[in-house]
Design brief:
Jelly Rolls; mainly beta; 10 strands; three-stranded antiparallel sheet; globular; five-stranded antiparallel sheet; single chain
Length: 134
């Protein structure tokens, strides 16, 4: 695989899932983008492809279905079909399996972390708005 294509600046980075990799499987987001506060991966699944059953020791996960449809099966046996734009949160110790459903590839982003939420800490920057592009 080629090196991820990321544009970086003073305190930011810009890319896309396509620029971070190709083909099926994981697209690492965290390291190429410089993220340090949480884990993040994009995943591309072929049609009717199941992932392995898994759980975590510490990190909860939030899944965002970007493209296609994914069936989530949980340790209690329940199944939920989630279509484009859908979100699924899973506790660390909850067993889960994902399977792409439908005729097309499925693409999702998983974000994982632990130790809580940072309350609102945004501030207006000095000078107000960012200047418009020239």
């Amino acid at each position: 695989m080629s090196e991820p294509d990321v544009t970086t600046g003073a305190g930011y980075s810009v890319s896309s899932l396509d620029r971070l990799g190709s083909g099926y499987g994981f697209r690492k987001i965290r390291k190429p983008m410089g993220v340090t506060a949480f884990g993040a991966n994009g995943v591309v699944l072929p049609p009717d492809y199941p992932t392995r059953n898994h759980f975590h020791d510490e990190q909860e996960e939030l899944y965002f279905v970007h493209k296609g449809s994914i069936e989530f099966t949980f340790g209690d046996g329940t199944r939920h079909r989630v279509d484009e734009g859908g979100l699924v949160w899973v506790a660390a110790d909850t067993v889960r399996q994902l399977r792409s459903v439908g005729e097309t590839d499925a693409v999702y982003v998983a974000v994982g972390g632990k130790d809580g939420y940072v309350p609102h800490d945004g501030h207006e920057a000095p000078g107000g708005d960012v200047p418009p592009a020239s």
